[in-house]
């Protein structure tokens, strides 16, 4: 496999991998390192990728293992975790159709949803993000996290319930308007 | 089937994980149970919020890929990957498929051979089409808010719902929650929903009002005022109850009319 081929297949997933890593470790620098490490592992192990299966899911499995290894190392070196948490990543409103005023409002909303996600136990959060955001199937998530499909389903159920309760005030959009979130 | 027996199946159905038989049981239950219908609607909104929020997270740094590439090259240089090169080369034919799909999408997005008929609303129609084109070109894809869930948006298309009537006056946050965004076209102000139909058709729905006088903007209120189609672009524009509606999309005019009929166009 040439570098060009590896890039064509892997690079489109870089943002998703980075965002997943950034949520898992709360540090931009660590997330970058973990994504680099995971990509290098993917390149080395490409011969083991099963044709016809989901390449994105395969990449996420490698990244998830890389993150787990990092957490194990970090637990042995608590200082590393502390430094990571001191430089947390702030979500920023995406450049796009919104004007600056609207961007500020959506930034506040984004921070609120982010806080609700961050309050989930890491195992629930991972399942929820892999399903909701990355669109991976229960089976693919079970492979990534090395757990049974039933565990994926129950974690996803609990994560949904926790988010629904925590974001209840946002679920009726007209309530959100009244809550003063409008510009 | 009781509610507590349904919940896992309800979410499995929502996630596309249930076979047709299981889905039928859930649908039968949903028809009778308002609490579960509400739960499902809430879940769709939670999902739309989480997806939208993910789209606001910072992207990978610009130079991250070059750093990955440098490590891969360094790795090759030390020859630590015996055998992998020859095994994997033949596995890359999917790249061609991805490239073809990208080319089709780009062709759809760049097709601008629409020629709206000369009409009093032509200027606004041209703005609508141009705005739709811009919506499709945004980095994150066809939806204004990438996390916008078509199911949530379609649920909004019930002309009997209060949200539908109030849609053009929505605030930015409400629009974002529902997967749309506020837009201003000419003297109008309203809401734009851009979404995908059947994987290929990209459609924007506009609901617009004039800040001062709907009647001055909409002399033909209550009936169709303009339709056009050409190549891969079609649109239909009509007014009803002081609200100007427009559907613009890379689907056939017949398909657009069918969608429009769902939200009051006759």
Which properties best describe this structure?
heterodimer; A: 183 residues; mainly alpha; 75% helix; globular; B: 266 residues; alpha+beta; six-stranded antiparallel sheet; 12 helices; 6 strands
Commentary on this structure:
The complex is a heterodimer of chains A (183) and B (266). By secondary structure, chain A is mainly alpha-helical. Helix content of chain A is 75%, strand content 0%. Chain A is built from eleven helices and no strands. The longest helix of chain A is centred in the middle third of the chain and has 22 residues, at 55-76. Chain B is 50% helix and 17% strand. Chain B has a six-stranded antiparallel sheet with strand order 1-2-3-6-5-4, sandwiched between helices. The longest helix of chain B has 23 residues, at 34-56. Chain B is flat and about 70 Å long. The chains are: A mainly alpha (183), B alpha+beta (266). Chains A and B meet through helix 1, helix 2, helix 3, helix 6 and helix 7 of A and helix 1, helix 3, helix 4, helix 5 and helix 6 of B.
N→C terminal distance of chain A = 51 Å
Query: How many strands, what sense, and barrel or not for the largest sheet of chain A?
Result: none
Low-confidence runs of at least 5 consecutive residues of chain A = 79-99, 173-183
Shape of chain B: flat
In spatial order, strands of the major sheet of chain B run 1-2-3-6-5-4
Shape of chain A: globular
Count of extended strands of chain B = 6
Largest interface: A-B, 73 and 67 residues
Beta-strand percentage range of chain B: 15-25%
- Assign a percent range to the helix content of chain B: 40-55%
Q: Could you tell me how far the N terminus lies from the C terminus of chain B, measured between alpha carbons in angstroms? A: 40 Å
Q: Tell me the series of helices and strands of chain B, N- to C-terminal.
A: HHHHHHHHHHEEEHEEEH
The class by helix and strand makeup of chain A works out as mainly alpha
The fraction of residues in strands of chain A falls at: under 5%
Briefly note the structural class of the backbone of chain B. Answer: alpha+beta
Q: Whole-number radius of gyration of chain A?
A: 18 Å
Proportion of helical residues of chain A:
over 70%
Total helices of chain A: the number is 11
